[in-house]
């Protein structure tokens, strides 16, 4: 098979296997399965045997025509009632096609042609009509038989209509008497209006031709076009023309299959577009609501950012004041650090403790932040009910709320964790480095060092001059130095708190940037819609393959 056909069949096979929640496409995929089976069968058939079906109402002479073509009484005939209960197959010797339980007769009058006499298409017997449909599914060319009294019966039309554009057809007026046909123009015109391709029209008297062959006489003008029909079947239906007919039938079936799918997705496109727009709108609204909750839970707790900045400053602090700050910070955070090592405290840690650990790159909390609490879940469920209604109106099953909630929690935790572990932590680390840089260290240590230098100089000078220091000089000096260090430490802590609040604001802005626009909080629902859009694109791509 050509690569184009292989790609089309592979795409159709994927579409036929669709079992998702898009109910609007289920009917199309259900109807696609039998068509795909027929397409694959026709694509895999490489033989040059043409299967011809004789179709028509009761009494129009189908069986008589088959007998006349074969030159023998292969099928029972009757002018007044249906007499063919199951198909009769007249085929060349050696043909191995699947004829199921049909009656088969091997002959060689028409090489490369298999002719199947079908039950009457206008019978009330359901099994007879089902047999006709079976034959039409396997045939390549239809010989539509009719007479002046019966050629447009609705029962036959109802069977043929599903094959519009899929089969070539030859019309045969089987009981012609005069030199001209009063029904040819009307009959062919109606077929062409119904999108059937009529390759030829023959007027024959099948009964006279059969009698002549059984009597072994030469043909007479009374048989009308019967010799032309035999010539057409024997000579004009060459191997090349058979191949073209098969290709035309395959293309017609493929085009109708693709057209049916395209009609389905085209009708659904406005609903899909409206659903995508509403999903985006609700997603943005929920994002704003979730951002408010996160801001209230994490970004209004000043101690969280003070703790994070203090930990980072403690790791980088230098100088006298820095060393005292590191010791004080270690003592202040000792209870939290000790409790963090306890397994039951780790498993039950709240969002604040986890956020602080992420901001400080604490190895105890490297998992994603468990932030989506009951308040956020309630906000999601409220919005999800709106989305569920929109999906139902667009022709989908309502999305699974439990699966959607799990996806929502995961999305929130991943996004906020990424911000705290990334940009927010970078902000804290940057400010900690600035506060513990050498210029800041020298500036904070300048006053205590100057006082210590002055006191040392005074002691040395008095010693060289032989002046005895007062008893309370050392204690007084130490007290002043401690006061200076305490003031410096208090100033540093105050600056750290102000800087932590500034870091909180910068991190909040980065979080808002990260959560701006569409956050895809409805990832489960978005995946369902995306799968439907991919189906739509696959159907449209069939035209270009």
What does it look like?
The chain has 545 residues and is α/β, with parallel strands linked by helices. It folds into 2 domains: 47-237, 3-Layer(aba) Sandwich (Rossmann fold); 267-544, no CATH class. The chain is built from 18 helices and 7 strands. It has helices at 3-16, 23-44, 62-70, 126-138, 154-160, 184-193, 206-214, 226-236, 239-298, 302-316, 319-340, 343-347, 351-359, 374-393, 401-435, 438-464, 473-514, 523-544; strands at residues 50-55, 88-91, 103-106, 113-117, 141-146, 168-173, 197-203. The protein has a 7-stranded mixed sheet, with helices on both faces.
Please tag this protein with its features.
about 550 residues; alpha/beta; Rossmann fold; 7-stranded mixed sheet; about 5% strand
Short structural description:
This protein is 65% helix and 7% strand.
Q: SSE layout and pairings?
A:
Elements: H1 3-16, H2 23-44, E1 50-55, H3 62-70, E2 88-91, E3 103-106, E4 113-117, H4 126-138, E5 141-146, H5 154-160, E6 168-173, H6 184-193, E7 197-203, H7 206-214, H8 226-236, H9 239-298, H10 302-316, H11 319-340, H12 343-347, H13 351-359, H14 374-393, H15 401-435, H16 438-464, H17 473-514, H18 523-544
Parallel strand pairs: 1-4, 1-5, 2-3, 5-6, 6-7
Antiparallel strand pairs: 2-4
